[in-house]
Amino acid sequence: MSASSQAATNNLEAFWMPFTANRQFKQAPRMFVSAKDMHYTTADGRQVLDGTAGLWCCNAGHSRPKVVEAVQKQIAELDYAPAFQMGHPKAFELAARLAAMMPSPLDHVFFTNSGSESVDTALKIALAYQRAIGQGTRTRLIGRERGYHGVGFGGISVGGIVSNRKTFGTMLTGVDHMRHTHDPERNAFSRGMPENGAEYAEELIRIIQLHDPSTIAAVIVEPVAGSTGVLIPPKGYLERLREICSQHGILLIFDEVITGFGRLGSPFATDFFGVTPDLVTTAKGLTSGVVPMGAVFCTSDIYHTFMTGPEHMIELFHGYTYSAHPLACAAALATLDTYDEEGLLTRAADLAQYWEDGLHSLKDCPNVIDIRNLGLIGAIELTPIAGEPTKRAFSAFLKAYDDGLLIRTTGDIIALSPPLIISKEQIDELFGKLRSVLNAID
Q: InterPro entries this protein is in (predicted)?
């Protein structure tokens, strides 16, 4: 490496890192240089057990041979093809495969490049659909407090995490929010879905009565709220949201960027909960994080509503330069093959009880005030340090990294979502390391 290249590599200042305490990081960098299966390797040669599937995305683990080979082959064959008025075979193959995985009538797919783009796409489709069926007064979008729907202006508008919203102005107009479902007084340390809280769905009725249903286009929720700290839906809650939306002509959007592709022990949360929305946003696990890609599923009714007018006219004025990128399609197809061959889309169902028992065994650790779980997702909520919110969990994050474990924190909540290939022995290792971390931090 040349001296100039070495200087550029060692200069950490130029990169403004996302969702990162930049000054803290650049004083003591944490660098990954390679990854394989369940582990990252650091710049100083240590192995770090991946307790978060990268960033909720590496569901099949790291550097899986079939995916690596597919991407290498694809870039030599067709590096890029435009998706506007052109196509390439893998885009259609992937869309058909994905549509076959979803319950009917969710059988059409629009490709994006991220969860944020998937959300904005779904919101735009919902608004355009209502207009197309003569319901152009339906322009209002309903999200939920503590919801996370990416970082586009649409996503942060319907999202409900304060820090993601407060510095970015008024955002989209005509947006309202339901109450979140977190109820620690009644549901702390619930195993799986909480017994209490289905009535929080009735909050949607209040909003409908406030604005009138003729003004509301869509409701968007995460089936399991992930980035806010793993909020599990109460029993009956999602079913009631579906009933209310259907009754009032409102589209229901499930944001499955986290829950999609096996995280709960079924291909999608719509399968797990038995609730079928009108639109589903996905990303992350679609390619196991290898190449950025997202996909929005919609019903046949929504799709065919747009397929009118002169055949030479564009039906939806929306899309991205990198929609259905050849490398992303190749990665996604190979990821789906890996999921199928190893039974990964349902493997979390086999491990869920073992995972739950290991997670809840940490109840007696210092400062633990709640534990939540579903499928291969877990959260440990800690008592905040007075006057220093987020510091206790961040201290746990740093200590875990030093001890060879990658966790994720949001506020004073530790979130866990390991690759679906995790073994029971590795689950034991993960919770053993985490117990030591929780016992060591102040």
A: Aminotrans_3, Aminotrans_3_PPA_site, PyrdxlP-dep_Trfase, PyrdxlP-dep_Trfase_major, PyrdxlP-dep_Trfase_small
- Dump pLDDT digits (tens) for 95-106: 999 999 999 999
3-state DSSP call for residue 253? strand
Pairwise CA distance, residues 355 & 314, whole Å:
48
What's the CATH code, domain 68-342? Answer: 3.40.640.10
Of 295, 296, 162, give the one whose Cα is nearest residue 229. 162
Which ranges of 102-234 does DSSP label H, i.e. alpha helix?
115-132, 153-158, 162-165, 184-187, 203-211
Tokens of 271: 């399968």
What stretch of H or E contains 178? strand 175-178
How does the average pLDDT of the chain come out, rounded?
A: 96
The widest CA-to-CA distance across the chain, in whole angstroms, is 68
For 406-420, give the DSSP string.
E-EEETTEEEE---T
Q: Say what the pLDDT of residue 1 is.
A: 45
Give the pTM: 0.97
- The structural domains of the chain, with segments of one domain joined by +, span 3-51+343-440, 68-342
